[in-house]
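Q: I have two molecules that I believe assemble together. Could you output structure tokens for the complex as a whole instead of separate predictions?
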Amino acid sequence: MNSSRFANTAFGVLAWIVALLIFFPILWLLLTAFKTEQQAFTVTPTFWFTPTIESFKTALAQGSGYWHYAWNSALTAVASTVIGLALAVPAAYAMAFYPNKRTDFLLVWMVSTKFIPAVGVLIPIFLVYKTVGLLDHALGLTLLFTAMNLPIIVWMVYSYFRDIPKDIVEAADIDGASIMQTLFKVVLPLALPGLASTGLLALILAWNESFWSITMTDHRAATLAVYIASFKSAEGLFWAKMSAASVLAIAPIIVLGWFTQRQMVRGLTFGAVK
Amino acid sequence: MKAMSRSIQSTVPAAEASGARSFARTTRLLMAPAVIFLLIWMLVPLLMTIYYSFQQYNLMMPMYNGFAGVGNYAILLSDPTFWKALANTLIIVLASLVVTVCLGLALALLFNRTFVGRGVARTLAVAPFFVMPVVTGLIWKNMLFHPVYGLFAWIARQFGLEPTDWLAHYPMLSVIIMITWEWTPFALLVLLTGLQSLPEDQLEAAKLDGANAWQEFKHIVVPHLGQVLYVVVMLESIFFLTSFAEIYTTTSGGPGTATTNLPYYIFQTVFQQYDIGIASSAAIGAVVLANVFAIMLIRYIAGNLNAGAAR
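A: Yes, here they are, computed for all two components at once.
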């Protein structure tokens, strides 16, 4: 009994050590963000220091452009999520409650488009965007994020709709409600929590996206990912500022992520793990 | 015609038939926007990529544009950088898979035990998965791997060792470390969720039958986790195949071509050499490679779908 309690304590300590090690790079980024530039860039790392919010001020100062990029990130993430849900909800509704012989095929086909790598469609999209003026345009990026997330959104909404007992929908149909009335009055209210977590997942994925942002935008529609990536050649010049900007960019997502862990798992594993 | 003759016999089935038809029309209308959107944004560009892959097309040399036959593919297959990129892609996928799945499984078993502050510890451990990959690249490159000002260099000096320039001397290992840091939390999160849905009574029964920890793990935990593991492996391979931000912000595919994977190779071919034709044929290569992995996952999803239908 004693030895098993000892084992439990040992495993608990081990788990904590591992957790702190894994989290350490984020903690280090956070600490650096509260240092001065001199403290951030030293041969012997500064562990004890008086925290300063100077770097955050510099990062957010006028002329740093932070708000411009943050606005683009927020705009494209939110807009792509809204469009994605608007496209996915009717489709998932039809497939979940009024399936026909083509439903399975369509669903699998939609999900399978997720597995076309971005580089497989990059070139034509870049050329077409260049021609029609969508290059470095928030709308262009938004639509790409929508396309990137739509398969996951459809699948998640579909799996949430499937959890709704079919009898409820059939009862509404028999009562003479039209298909759209059933959707808005019966199905959507029941699936609201599921839709919310689907939306959060899409938001997180769009916010963190970097491949399309880097290739399709330059400045006008550039997102935080592009802005932060631009620090890649700053050889130690602005580490504190870079850290502050990074902290601001990742903090909301980490917090959102913590709250939606389970839904993330469900969405990303296509409902296989609930 | 048929509907008309039927409606002469009786009006009721006809009304039902037309009702069913309008029903089908409504559901088709409901699905159309999503289907059309994906057709336009994924399928049409994919077909265009295939078309470009047979064209000689360089944005800097418009006068030489024209049909190239399999010329691009011939050039591609004789380009050692392409093969290097293909090999690098596979190394990244396989190494990251092995490490994240093994570590993730070990950590999931560890975090499935009860200990003080488990919730907080688990929350800290999954955090890297939510970090923007661009930020991951910069944290590791500047603050950890940096040969002079990085933390690893300082630690090495504390032990009297010569600091290592990680990105210059072990570029591939560094990239894999970064990807592993981001994705082990994902494996941990999914596997832990899987473990927590493990049927308690089965474990009890096994204990009563005198199974030891290893037997319990092998005969109950692993089969139950099989499905979950499969999903983790497939999903991670899809994402690892398209790794880009970690490479873009740190090594830029180098030194030389040491960390150039297929996405980065295509990125360079388009945006630095402006060669649409060659880049398109390489993109088709990337699509084929992704399909090998994707077909397996889609089969699995389709299987899941059928199981759901039988439910």
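A: One point stands out. Chain A has a mean pLDDT of 88.
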